[in-house]
What we know:
- The protein is α/β, with parallel strands linked by helices.
- Among the domains are: 140 residues, Leucine Dehydrogenase, chain A, domain 1 (Rossmann fold, 3-Layer(aba) Sandwich), CATH 3.40.50.10860; 148 residues, Rossmann fold, CATH 3.40.50.
- The protein has 15 helices and twelve strands.
- The protein has a seven-stranded mixed sheet. A five-stranded mixed sheet has the order 1-2-4-3-5.
- The structure holds glutamic acid.
- The site of glutamic acid has 12 residues, from β3 and α13.
Amino acid sequence: MSDADKEKPNPYEVALAQLDRAAKVAGVPQSVRDILSQPKNEIIVNFPVRMDSGELRMFKGYRVQHNNILGPYKGGIRYHEQVSLDEVKALASWMTYKCALHDIPFGGGKGGIKFRPRDFSQGELERITRRFTHALGSNIGPEYDIPAPDVGTNGQIMVWMMDTYMNVVGFTDKNANRRVVTGKTLASGGSHGRETATGQGIVHCIAEWARDRRFDLNGATYTVQGFGNVGANTAKILARTGASLVAVGDWKGYVTNGDGINPYKLAEHVHKTGSVIGYPGTHSISRAEFFATAADIFVPAALELEIGIEEAKALNVKLIAEGANGPTETAAEPILRDKGIDVIPDILANSGGVVVSYYEWLQNKRSERWDLEEVEERLAKRMKRTYLAVSEYAAMKKCDWRVAAMAIAVERIARAYAERGIFP
Ligand code: GLU
């Protein structure tokens, strides 16, 4: 984002503070809290890649496998210049809770490479991706650890990962290895509805919230931070309810138009120019002005820890639906609560992506192709069911929704540990 120098806390400490609160409310044994406070495996690989210029360049890649008591490690691969071990550890742990919350038979993992993908050609991106996959070797696998897209990666990158894995690592029974990654393109074994799934899931949550609060989305206003896959799809799908996008920002800056911004046309502008800046009919605003924009709903869909104390004080909205993973600092949470701002936490709000990843994995495993309606119907049902579970848990335990969502997840994990015990 344009505020690259903003001092941010350590994301893993934020994740640990969330775990502690949830473990207390869930009343799980200290041993479970201790197990979840460290990932099972932290893999770091350094590898050389030949650039278009002919020179070699070194890259640092990560794969953190947080927990697999409920199923294979699952989670995205991020390409970004700020990727660090503690960031990937935090993101991997949130995947564990996200899958457990939905009762999907997956654990949690996350990976990434520290570099700025915009500065590289397609050929370079392909070589970086293939070399990284090769370096990970059998640390990933269709029943062991299943990557997916995240910030800076997409279906094409997943297909390169799959192809490399199939041809180099999983040499036997090649086709059975297709599901080693999800979020692939449709032509190469991806699922209908996967690309829009995270945005669609966020809008299901917002629609449920509006129904509970008897709030009319038609005529409501919203702001979105980040206009990648999650931000753009959320903005587009939410517009169909009759709500209007009044401010938006990305890595380059923020723009506003109180009369509404057409997210479909904005996406075309971003496709052509690389950012939201300069979109006709809007004017540029500062990051501080963006956070102070009056609207009904705010969807953070950029990087983690964008909502600190200052931003929480400035926010003038009724609801925050967390599209990004970990967008809210621990210290910002009580401020939002005191202001009466509802928060639909990341592991619930943005979980549509991994839910449809699970459907993609199942389709690959069974050699099936579900049509879009089937995927969307299943996603809608699951999102609504989990939303209701979180809202009921929060009401029962009188806790906030983040704690409720994480406590449901931690309880499920604790039950599995109680039954299986610790080896040996
Ligand atoms: N990167 C996405 C997330 O943070 C999707 C993960 C997946 O589909 O495995 O939830």
